[in-house]
Design goal:
The strands form 4 sheets. The protein has a 5-stranded mixed sheet. The protein has a 5-stranded mixed sheet with strand order 2-8-7-5-6. A two-stranded antiparallel ribbon has the order 3-4. The chain is built from 11 helices and 14 strands. It folds into 2 domains: 172 residues, Thiolase/Chalcone synthase (Peroxisomal Thiolase, Chain A, domain 1), CATH 3.40.47; 150 residues, Thiolase/Chalcone synthase (Peroxisomal Thiolase, Chain A, domain 1). The N and C termini lie far apart (44 Å). The relative contact order is 0.20. Bound molecules: coenzyme A. Coenzyme A binds next to helix 2, helix 6, helix 8 and strand 13.
């Protein structure tokens, strides 16, 4: 039995097609210099080790749901449609442990009675949600799906941890999927997903869940902070994103050289360039927005897609490879052709 799954969207002619894209970041910008005023770090260290110059951070009272609503509305507007019959929200930072954030987001967007649920796969969350939405369309369960990735990682960070503070930012991105044909521009061609629960401790919020509560414990502030073993994550991310990319390219029947653009999870510019190098892709084919927004976890890929659409890095007809790695561990890759959409 393999430890991963691959979708054979080619098995049906009914295929999910990207019909709209939107992104939103909260207005407050935190520069590296601002971080360096309260932590033992520097702009030079963060830029050279991660490629990040700044990140956006919510103001007190703003939630993941707020960012998701903004991104979702922008994606719907970009698609020219005003509705969807399924909302899938990928997030690691839901507004509450229970219920899911997606139903409230759907209601606020003006879709009060549609199916709506959250998907939790940390930084791979958007690809997991994309697969869920694409499969719903492929199976005839939905005609139009709003897939959102939204995060407020700033609510999880240990204020004394310079490593995670340097990397993560808040934001949201979304795509609208509609039913279409595999050969048309915008078609989500194939998706590959995988996981390895043996790596669960590499990226974790150790407390606050059933594991702690079942032992009679209640979380203290320390238990609720995000923890990450950066170096191990770095190497696993490069390996798994490269492997997953090759798997999905093979399924689609594309050579590496056929890929016009790679949109990888914006974890670290060095990770993205290492993945491109392992694949044999020129680094300039990578779409990057990490310098401006940092690592926004499940929002990272759709936010990069929105940025690439806005600045012209993604053009209609481009063959695009998406790939991500995240806590779990989870990983994945997807192939699609870029649609002809109005620039947001
Ligand atoms: N400023 C200054 N120094 C820092 C720092 C910061 N913000 N963060 C870490 N350091 C220090 C470390 O403490 C270490 O010091 P030491 O040698 O005295 O122990 C030194 O820099 C080197 O640390 P190391 O972990 O080897 O650096 P690195 O080159 O691997 O970069 C990461 C660290 C976290 C940037 C990198 O490992 C990474 O990006 N990992 C993946 C993270 C990620 O994407 N996670 C999300 C899920 S995909």
């Amino acid at each position: 039995m393999s430890d991963d799954i691959s979708s054979g969207l080619s098995a049906t002619t009914r295929t999910a097609v990207i019909a709209g894209v939107g992104g939103y970041v909260p207005p407050r910008v935190v520069t590296n210099d601002e971080l360096a005023r309260r932590l033992d770090t520097s702009d030079a260290w963060i830029r050279t080790r991660t490629g990040i110059a700044q990140r956006h951070v919510i103001d007190p009272g703003t939630t993941t749901g707020d960012l998701a609503v903004e991104a979702g509305l922008r994606a719907l507007k970009n698609s020219g449609a005003d509705g969807a019959d399924l909302v899938v929200l990928a997030t690691t930072t839901p507004d509450r442990p229970c219920p899911a954030t997606a139903p409230a987001v759907a209601t606020r967007i003006g879709l009060p009675h549609v199916a709506a649920f959250d998907v939790a796969a940390v930084c791979s969350g958007f690809l997991y949600a994309l697969q869920t939405g694409a499969a719903a369309i492929g199976a005839g369960f939905a005609e139009r799906v709003l897939v959102i990735g939204a995060e407020t990682f700033s609510t999880l960070l240990d204020p004394a941890d310079r490593t995670t503070a340097a990397i993560f930012g808040d934001g949201a991105g979304a795509v609208v999927l509609r039913a279409g044909e595999r050969d048309e521009p915008g078609a989500v061609r194939d998706i590959h997903l995988g996981s390895d629960g043996g790596m669960a401790d590499l990226i974790t919020v150790p407390g606050g869940g059933a594991e702690q509560r079942s032992r009679g414990g209640f979380p203290g502030p320390e238990d609720l902070y995000f923890r990450m073993e950066g170096k191990s994550v770095f190497f696993a991310a490069v390996r798994r994103m490269a492997e997953s990319s090759l798997t999905v390219l093979d399924r689609t029947g594309w050579q590496v050289a056929d890929v016009d653009r790679i949109v990888a999870h914006q974890a670290n510019t060095r990770i993205i360039h290492a993945v491109a190098e392992q694949l044999g892709l020129p680094p300039e084919r990578a779409v990057l927005n990490i310098e401006r927004v940092g690592n926004t976890s499940a929002a990272s890929i759709p936010l990069a897609l929105a940025g690439g659409m806005a600045d012209g890095a993604l053009k209609a007809g481009d063959r695009v490879l998406l790939t991500a790695f995240g806590g779990g561990a989870t990983w994945g890759a997807a192939t699609l052709t870029w649609p002809d959409l109005p620039r947001a």
